[in-house]
Amino acid sequence: MRTTYREAVREAIREAMRADSRVFLMGEDVGRYGGAFGVSLGLLEEFGPDRIRDTPLSESAFTGAGIGAAIGGMRPIVEIMTVNFSLLALDQIMNNAATLRHMSNGQIGVPLVIRMTTGAGRQLAAQHSHSLEGWYSHIPGLRILAPATVADARGMLAPALADPDPVLIFEHGSLYNTEGELPESIPTCDISSAAIGRTGTDVTVITYGGTMPAVISAADELATLGISAEVVDLRVLRPLNDATIMQSVRKTHRAVVVDEGWRSGSLSAEVSARITEQAFFDLDAPVMRVCTEEVPIPYAKHLEEAALPRPERIVRTARELVGR
Amino acid sequence: MNTEFRMPSLGADMESGVLLEWLVHPGDTVHKGDIVAVVDTAKAAVEVECFTSGVVTELLVEPGTRVPVGGPLAVISTTTGEQPHAAPTVAAPGVVTSPLVRHLADQLHVDTGTTPGTGVGGRITRADVIRQAEPVRISPRARRLAAERGVDLRTIGSTTPGRVITGDEVLAAADALGRPEHDAKGIDPQAMRNAIAQLMAKSKKEIPHYYLTEQIDMSTALAWLHEQNRALPVAQRILPAALLLRAVASACAEVPQLNGFWIDGSFVPAGGVHLGVAISLRGGGLVAPAIRDAGTLSAPELMAALRDLVSRTRAGRLRASEMSDPTITVSNLGDQGADSLLGVIYPPQVALVGFGRIAERPWASGGMLGVRPVVTASLAADHRATDGVTGALFLQAIARQLQLPEEK
Questions:
Q1: Global confidence as pTM
Q2: Catalytic residue ranges of A
Q3: Cβ separation B164–A283 shorter than 8 A
Q4: Is residue B18 situated within a structural domain?
Q5: Among A26-40, A113-127, B82-96, where is mean pLDDT lowest?
Q6: From the candidates B138, B141, B148, which should be mutated to test the interface with A, based on the most A CB atoms within 10 A?
Q7: What is the CATH number of the domain that holds A9?
Q8: Best label site of A61, A150, B290, B309, fewest CB within 10 Å?
Q9: What is the rounded (10 degree) CA torsion for A266, A271, A272, A278?
Q10: Structural domains of chain B, count
């Protein structure tokens, strides 16, 4: 069945709400407007205003309400419009959701799912375009997911809701219109492992989420140059699945980390450091990174494109590493 | 005058060898007997000595190259007092370089002949020269693999731009040297098995062996050893093997018809007594390098030579003369518990002496029966070169010598 990333997320929410009456969705404009990115379109009509709840413009309030509902036994899905706005709810996420199980000696869990849009590429300027999932993946107590494929967009929500602790799902805004094939019966999906997006032998390109299309396009280009790139889709940004990364690097002996986050103090830095710690003696070249330029994401189209990790930069970096 | 230094024959079965490593550079002064290179035969990495004195003017072969026996490896200038003239930096024919680039290349000691040019029409640019002058870098994986497989990183010329030696290049070099995984000693067990198979089949096919054995009373010899060892520190104690070797060396002097080679249909006596000692390797296989001039060594000296030879053999480092020189082979399987052994001659030698275990046995002497330590000595000899009578004399000479341990 051919479907879009957006429809896959919607279908996952629909399935979860049908399967469990404790599940409900809340966030800004998720009801009558159908969601800022159209994900929840039609759900209000199907499930009614008690389970598809429009909220006031206060991320701190409705995220906090979601945490309270989760503690009270519900299985809320909180939608935050973009990761930039999630900073208004950061106190709730970090000081409450991530900590309560530890501070209550295991008595209070927060089985909450927070979905939010991340990333640039749609000319939404510097207050709507950043990629801050790397910040969240710094926080113990949270599980951070970044579905890059239609299959993961469809499959990750159910195990996230089943998790007894808070899970954050980062949906890259440029992926909503991408299409992919889904099987009729949805296979079970894990939220613990990285995946090999494409097998190769010469260089490992590690990425996740919204930069996946650029990496796949770069891998195609590299193939025409006779360079076989293996693509690792991290999928889960916290906890990182080191074994899959190292297995690939031990095969290709070279690694490029592609991350739409800024380079300094980033998730790409973490991945690079782990490779150096665990696979140093299997490396034939230094670990390289392709990240977003260290500027607030520009509004102008050509500047925005220039700031982001583009296939040409990935190809150039991979060629430097391979020496061809 | 220039002479060519050629691939030596490091054994009768050797047809070619792989040059592993140069231990000299052009311009070095060498003397006869100096170790100048390491060559890999199918059996071991062997240090090769130089046969002339002079100055190395040119190395003709890159490490990793297989060269037939007799093939030239290097040019040695034997004219005394003449220093080789350093070749001026010249570009390869057809490569255009600017005066500035040539000047820079001279300053940085870069050979423009081997520098890849990236400029218009393949011209060598300043950046090319500077890049060429950068030290070669080695990846962490390449270092690890080189250590694991015993590859000398200096022998690998990287082709990668930016000149990083990668793990794949080390693996290629290791393959060229026949150094598979998990064998850092530089000996390929399969190649060694093949070499032994060929040589032993050739021996059994061509040499009409005859065999003699003799039981020898070792009580006098062992008593003498016991006295000697009392005064020696543990590390220097003499083992019975040294006495057995000395007895063989002495018998070779007495019966020289068994000490030499069968070459082109006739026996050629050897100039000295160089005892080939069969040494089994831990990974399987065996080699029989020589203890040179064994007849001139005392028992403690023979013991020291034997220890040295065994340890270097097992480390994979033998000298060329030790590999090519043996005039007769001694095989001692006493340690392994065999009572006696009947050996296969190592061509073109004409005899192999075997010793079994020294064990207490009933022994009749002077009309009395006693218990004595006894060893069975055996001789496998080439019937083309000698007859049984000569062989019997040889074994008797060994037996007699073992009754006179204090002599020399």
A1: 0.56
A2: 59, 128
A3: no
A4: yes
A5: B82-96
A6: B141
A7: 3.40.50.970
A8: A61
A9: 150
A10: 3
Per-residue pLDDT, B254: 92
Residue-level pLDDT at B324 = 66
Q: Chain B contact for A165, CB < 8 A?
A: no
Using a CB–CB cutoff of 8 Å, tell me whether B167 touches chain A: yes
B181 part of a folded domain: no
**Helix (H) or strand (E) segment spanning residue B276:** strand B275-277
Q: Are A34 and A139 within one domain?
A: yes
Residue A18: phi and psi, rounded to 5, are -70, -35
Are A29 and A150 part of one and the same domain?
yes
Segment A51-82, tens digit of pLDDT: 999 999 999 999 999 999 999 999 999 999 99
Instruction: Report which of residues B66 and A243 the model is more confident about.
Output: A243
Contact residues on chain B for A323, CB-CB shorter than 8 A: 160-162, 164, 166
Pairing of strands A203-207, A255-262: parallel
Query: What is the domain extent for residue A308?
Result: 195-322
Q: Decide if the complex's ipTM is over 0.90.
A: no
C-beta atoms of A253 and B160 within 8 A: no
- Tell me which residue of B230, B222, B227 sits closest to B360, measured CA to CA: B222
Residue A88 lies in a domain: yes
CATH number for position A214: 3.40.50.920
Structural domain harbouring B110:
99-176
Residue by residue, DSSP assigns A168-220 as EEEEEGGGTT-EEE--SSPPP--SS--EEEE--SSEEEEE-GGGHHHHHHHHH
The CATH number of the domain where B69 resides is what? 2.40.50.100
Please name the member of B139, B161, B168 whose beta carbon is closest to the beta carbon of A283: B139
Tens digits of per-residue pLDDT, B177-212?
Answer: 776 554 434 556 677 787 788 888 889 999 999 999
